[in-house]
Amino acid sequence: MTIETCINFCNSGNFIFAGVEFGHCDSTIQIPSQMAPATDCNMGCSGNSTELCGGPVRMNIFQSNKPPPIIVQNVTSGTGLWSYQGCFTDSVAARTLNTGVNIPLGTTPESCTAACQAAGPFTFAGVENGHECWCDTTVHAPTQRVGDADCRMLCAATHAEYCGNSNRLAIYQFSASGQSTAPQACLQTSLTNFTLRAQFKNPPTNGPSTVPLKVVAVEMVKNVLWTVLSVSAFFSSVRLDF
């Protein structure tokens, strides 16, 4: 192994990064990898001892001039538009989208949305695990939206795009009007046993400084906080009491 042979091999596979440790190729530097001191990469290459090929649990990484992969945001379909809704959890026991579609020529956001539209009428399409395509007319609970970094597995069909991840769906929603749809967030109720109270701007001399609100329906997703901006001119803020 030398730096040159590793780079040539990775380049032939259309990868963006080449790393010398045990000879590794990828188009994404995976989380939670962090940059380490250059002096940690102090092992000579087996094929050329004058070059350095990483070190114990350390890798020298080289980047090509190819553009990095992306999460596709929008896919145009005729006059309609499929827009990215976010990265969502999925499991075999409780599918977020229920209908799987096989795409012989390879799964990408473009080919998956086209396949769901052809097999439909489906309004949601999702790519998962680098090669899976799923369709449905609704997004099923108990899924939760997570950070986009969770959906950073390369599409098997192209290293230029991401296709979800293991148990992670990158979901797209179709709009016949061609207008981008806002990402879905309120998919399940996950907060219970609370009281919503309004606080007076000018509390009365006698009596409570806050007043409970009588009817409240709250749906929250993990790591997504919803705030009531105003209730009445008499109140300055609203808070949750647990």
TrEMBL record:
Bilayer disposition of the protein: Single-pass membrane protein
Top-rank lineage group of the source organism: Eukaryota
GO cellular component: plasma membrane
Alphabetical list of PROSITE patterns matching this protein: WSC (PS51212)
Domain WSC: 1-65, 81-175
Record localization: Membrane
A UniProt-annotated Pfam family: WSC
Keywords from the UniProt entry: Glycoprotein, Membrane, Signal, Transmembrane, Transmembrane helix
Name listed for the protein in its UniProt record: WSC domain-containing protein
Originating species: Galerina marginata (strain CBS 339.88)
Source organism phylogeny: Eukaryota, Fungi, Dikarya, Basidiomycota, Agaricomycotina
